[in-house]
Amino acid sequence: MVIISAKKLLMWEKKQLLKGGDKKSLNLLIDLLGGLSKKEFNFLKIKPEKKVELKINLELLEYFWEKHLNSSIPIQYLGGISYWRDLKLEVSSKVLIPRPETEILVDIISERFKNKSKKITFVDLGTGSGAIGIALALLNPKWDGLATDIDKNAIEIASRNFTKISNQSNLKFYLGNWWNPLINFKGEIDLAVANPPYIPLKTYEELPKEVKKFEPRIALMGGEDGLEHIKEIVRYAPSYLKEKGLLLIENHFDQGDRVKELFLENKFTSVKVLKDFSGIGRFTIGRYK
Q1: Among 63, 84, 150, 158, which residue's CB has the most CB atoms within a 10 Å radius?
Q2: Are residues 252 and 135 in the same domain?
């Protein structure tokens, strides 16, 4: 640990922002690598005479800040941590950094399953860091969760996250592509949720370099039209869902109508496209028969 004055840290912050970047990213760096939260940092402005305890010294923090500025590597990967909802998740370049809009998936499910005494079996397809699956497992300890991912590194990260965050045992992890590892659960799933790779090839090629260069392509690119993985998930869902089981998918901002068609083509009913924070049709939900 390193102890410095609040005044020195505040002056250091001003100096770093003159180099470029934005205040939000720098605050996140100070939080993840320095161990000082944004709330604690803002409090220093009121009491600049206060002493501050940091995990690493300012020289090392400056090194990481300049690395971020020069290479565009996301702060979350530098710190190995991402905040999502009320979770603090381990992340690496092997998993996607969970996005704020994806949090809405959990809110949609919470609203649909208000009867907290009812036991359900849910699956988080393509779990990545485990964000969605862990949030759902914590939402109701009576629920049994299954989480799949094609990448062994992602499964290991998600499993560690669940162990660190919770002492529950209601979420299990399976290695394999989408539904494939769940052959023994056919016809037993009440709810399936997925935030699959849905970015069309042309759009992927135009992504900012901090995304395209560092985040896993396998977790982003959805083929020529962005629907490659969504088609597979929807097509095989009826084999795994119970009758009246729900499927909820996050899709690209302009894919809502087409994804809705895919649901209807595969015998889903009550299909709706739901909006994100920006009023964009980001999520598609349907009931199997």
Answers
A1: 158
A2: yes
Confirm if 216 and 164 have CB atoms less than 8 A apart: no
pLDDT tier, 50 (very low <50, low <70, confident <90, very high otherwise) = confident
Domain ranges, residue 169:
95-288
Position 49 scores a pLDDT of 77
Domain identity same for 193 and 271: yes
- Reduced to 3 states (helix: H, G, I; strand: E, B; else coil), residue 282 is strand
Q: In total, how many domains does the chain have?
A: 2
Task: Identify any residues that bridge with 123 across adjacent strands, giving them in sequence order.
Answer: 146, 192
User: Across residues 103-109, what is the average pLDDT?
Assistant: 96
Of residues 135, 143, 122, 133, the one with CA closest to residue 245: 122
The predicted model scores a pTM of 0.93
Residue 286 has φ and ψ, to the nearest 5°, of -155, 160
- Please say if the pLDDT value at position 15 is more than 80: yes
On whether both 131 and 265 belong to a single domain, the answer is yes
* Position 87 in a domain: no
Among 277, 216, 283, which Cα is nearest to 255's? 283
Domain shared by 26 and 154, yes or no: no
Q: What is the DSSP string of 154-220?
A: HHHHHHHHHHHH-S---EEEEESSTTGGGGGGTT-EEEEEE----B-HHHHHTS-HHHHTTS-GGGT
Exposed e or buried b for every residue in 219-228, given b needs 16+ CB within 10 A? bbbbbeebbb
Q: What is the pLDDT of residues 215-240, one digit of tens each?
A: 999 999 999 999 999 999 999 999 99
Q: Helical H runs in 18-151?
A: 23-32, 38-44, 58-71, 75-79, 103-112, 131-139
Q: Which helix (H) or strand (E) holds 125?
A: strand 121-125
One domain for residues 260 and 154: yes
Q: What is the CATH number of the domain that holds 157?
A: 3.40.50.150
Extract the tokens encoding 176. Answer: 């394999």
Q: CA 190, CA 242: separation in Å to the nearest integer?
A: 6
